[in-house]
Amino acid sequence: MKGDRVEIVIDAGGTPRTYEVVATRAGRRVEVTTGRGIVEVSEVTRNGTPVRTARFMSSRILALVEHPADDRGPDD
Q1: CA atoms of 57 and 25, how far apart (whole Å)
Q2: Which residues in the chain land under pLDDT 70?
Q3: Residue 40: beta bridge partners?
Q4: CA distance 72 to 43
Q5: How far apart are the first and last CA of the chain?
Q6: Global pTM?
């Protein structure tokens, strides 16, 4: 959903760096997958086609924060 956002804080040689992956259009979502020491954060379409992907070594990640979209409708 538009508004999905994931923040990734990594250790970049003593200095933490922050990256964000955001669902930029309606119908897209952000997915996080982990495997073999790699964390992959992808913005995907409704069909599951990746639009943008960021990969990080899990040993370098200090924090990974998922901010889901606000599901409230206009009546709430």
Answers
A1: 27
A2: 1-3, 71-76
A3: 33, 55
A4: 22
A5: 18
A6: 0.81
